What we know:
With 470 residues, the protein is of the alpha/beta class. The chain has 16 helices and 18 strands. The chain starts with 11 loop residues before the first helix and ends with a helix.
Amino acid sequence: xNNNLTIENTPIDKQKAIFKAQKDFFFTQKTKDxxxxxxxxxxxxxxxxxxxxxxxxxxxxxxGKPPFESYVTEIGFLYDEINFTLKNxxxxxxxxxxxTSLVHxxxxxxxIYEPKGVTLIIGPWNYPFQLLLAPVIAxxxxxxxxxxxxxxETPHISHLINELISKNFNEEFLAVVMxxxxxxxxxxxxxxxxxxxxxxxxxxxxxxxxQLAAPQLVPVTLELGGKSPAVIDExxxxxxxxxxxxxxxxxxxxxxxxxxxxxxxxxxxxxxxVDELRATIMEFYGISPTESKDxxxxxxxxxxxxxxxxxxxxxxxFGGAFDDEKRKIEPTLVEGxxxxxxxxxxxxxxxxxxxxxxxxxEEALDFIRKNPDPLAFYLxxxxxxxxxxxxxxxxxxxxxxxxxxxxxxxxxLPFGGVGNSGSGNYHGKSGxxxxxxxxxxxxxxxxxxxxxxxxxxxxxxMKIIKFLMK
Length: 470
């Protein structure tokens, strides 16, 4: 693994030149054409197909992602998104006829879906390929131009993205800006007025992006995170629940924004369920998980040390070993975490899973509300009344019943946070809408024009308007 690969910041002059070129190109109207959008999406898909092995190799070099995991979560995901978009794009682009009040007779109304313009997409390090390019698919489908900023934490895949995009797309349409986010993102946003900014990452950085966008009133989509709970009711299939929670938590070694952050297990089944989790983890990763080729390593030394510090909190009831050379941490179950612990207050983003118990649904609800607005919520139950109780009372971005993380892989479902976990949605049509402006048009005929709706008004004017607007 080459850890000496560096990323240089794209100079400000170059950033400005790219932005101006994209602004000028957007004004040519070429990106609005359906065939143009379709061609670019097909080109992107073809590019990914031609370089699948290079993509997986780069992800392995950056943080040891297993090939199966890389394909499913980074490559195959994008194929699904592109295919779904191509299947529906012409329908999404079509102007929508809507009703018109009688008071405006004779008139017709419609909504035109227009691209916003030059967009900026800032990608995170945990899924550095998919989470950067999925919004690009949405932006292209809506008819925009894109400047993308890959994460500096994963230099191999970021350099590969830069190489592939630069060689295969015109810079005036799709371009890459490289560098440290804390340097180049403020440079980009302070020196250029983008028409939309899309950011995926942490809550603290999301706040900074919103602040940078505010002075110029630039609209933003923020895909953030939070502490996503998984509630395990006493009435559920414990074996299936253990398998699906283990999968959702440990894919990418827990470095997933929608991974279950902690478990709330009904006290009647807690011990039995913890046993199920232990057995499942060993079934998936063996008795020495740090040796498993299916367990991803932690992205960098800083994150690794942070996760190791969490191991000092609470009581480890399973796992807890780590390998400094490989930068791997065993899947670890922890009990006894308190509200004063960092693991309670911060998004864990690693293979460590705190386990709490509850007696009543109301008690579980109160516990979840201590870390409000999670990006995801998971509930394992066979009782519809329990499902209704939690879905009616918890505010969260999206989630699943009797499963974890799979909801984000359905392009028919909007994906996004709420409150502290973000703002705005994407995937499928929601992505098209996120990068589109709904232009409202009311067209009136001139063959009839009611004189009584104009001054000077009299008693008959009031009677007519009351009849029309009652």
